[in-house]
């Protein structure tokens, strides 16, 4: 499918979705988020795709929700369209693993989109922030909720109340990003990480994603039980037999997602 605001490429079982509104620093308007939702659903259906990367440009992953699109809207407009509700749900319901490759600004909805991915690898140029407070509003796509879970109350509260930006080093220290790499090698590093994930059994990847996400939603005892039952269920798969046989035979496993 031809998209106007994103570019999608699939190579070696990895789909790379590049946000592509350079004149607006990849500001997230409804059209872009709609296209992103469709592209992610397509990736889930496409058997060639085993891992997904969402990225932006060197200057901006995304500088937030599109302020120009929102500025004239009323409460009724926002409420009745459940602004960003459907798109947000579409992104988080993607089953395959998604890596956010962030360089430059990841602000407002941009930071929130990165946090909706399964993990973030940041260039040393990355800047994260929830500056909505400067616009007389507040985050609407997870900035008060996911950021608090990632970095804890104190830092999330400060970021949301002041709108200050966090650089990549601070973001790594705070646990917002899994790793910081030099900007020039960001895409190589992310591609090679995605490649490693793509080589695993997709059943294992999807189950790991579901189980880690459960850690946010359930008490520890329920999360541990959910994990254990998924682990037990894997003993009914060919990939478990293949993975363990390959270990014992000292060879590389050939997973078939069965
Ligand atoms: N929405 C719409 N357009 C945006 C945008 C946004 N969030 N961010 C940048 N742009 C546009 C600018 O208007 C400008 O367009 P024009 O050339 O037509 O004027 C173009 O992108 C380049 O931006 P700047 O000239 O401002 O670039 P800069 O390098 O001087 O500054 C910046 C970069 C600090 C990121 C600055 O653009 C900025 O502060 N952007 C807004 C950040 C923000 O407030 N984000 C939160 C949005 S609200 C939100 O996200 C709600 C939510 O939770 C869902």
UniProtKB/TrEMBL annotation:
<dbReference type="InterPro" id="IPR014748">
    <property type="entry name" value="Enoyl-CoA_hydra_C"/>
</dbReference>
<dbReference type="InterPro" id="IPR029045">
    <property type="entry name" value="ClpP/crotonase-like_dom_sf"/>
</dbReference>
<dbReference type="InterPro" id="IPR018376">
    <property type="entry name" value="Enoyl-CoA_hyd/isom_CS"/>
</dbReference>
<protein>
    <submittedName>
        <fullName>Enoyl-CoA hydratase</fullName>
        <ecNumber>4.2.1.17</ecNumber>
    </submittedName>
</protein>
<dbReference type="Pfam" id="PF00378">
    <property type="entry name" value="ECH_1"/>
</dbReference>
<dbReference type="GO" id="GO:0004300">
    <property type="term" value="F:enoyl-CoA hydratase activity"/>
</dbReference>
<keyword id="KW-0456">Lyase</keyword>
<comment type="similarity">
    <text>Belongs to the enoyl-CoA hydratase/isomerase family.</text>
</comment>
<dbReference type="InterPro" id="IPR001753">
    <property type="entry name" value="Enoyl-CoA_hydra/iso"/>
</dbReference>
């Amino acid at each position: 499918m031809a998209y106007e605001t994103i570019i999608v490429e699939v190579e070696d079982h990895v789909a790379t979705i590049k946000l592509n509104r350079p004149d607006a620093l990849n500001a997230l308007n409804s059209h872009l988020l709609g296209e992103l939702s469709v592209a992610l659903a397509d990736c889930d259906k496409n058997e060639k795709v085993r891992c997904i990367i969402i990225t932006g440009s060197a200057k901006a992953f995304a500088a937030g929700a599109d302020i120009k699109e929102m500025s004239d809207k009323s409460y009724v407009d926002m409420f009745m369209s459940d602004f960003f509700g459907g798109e947000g749900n579409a992104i988080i319901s993607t089953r395959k693993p998604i890596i956010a490759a962030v360089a430059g600004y990841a602000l407002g909805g941009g930071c929130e989109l990165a946090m909706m991915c399964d993990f973030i690898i940041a260039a040393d140029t990355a800047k994260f922030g929830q500056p909505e407070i400067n616009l007389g509003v507040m985050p609407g796509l997870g900035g008060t909720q996911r950021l608090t879970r990632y970095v804890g109350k104190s830092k999330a509260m400060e970021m949301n109340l002041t709108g200050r930006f966090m650089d990549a080093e601070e973001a790594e220290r705070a646990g917002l990003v899994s790793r910081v790499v030099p900007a020039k090698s960001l895409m190589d590093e992310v591609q090679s990480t995605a490649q490693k994930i793509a080589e695993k059994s997709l059943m294992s990847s999807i189950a790991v994603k579901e189980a880690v996400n459960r850690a946010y939603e359930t008490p520890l005892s329920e999360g541990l039980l959910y994990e254990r039952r998924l682990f037990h269920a894997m003993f009914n798969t060919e990939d478990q037999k293949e993975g363990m046989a390959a270990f014992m035979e000292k060879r590389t496993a050939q997973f078939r997602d069965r």
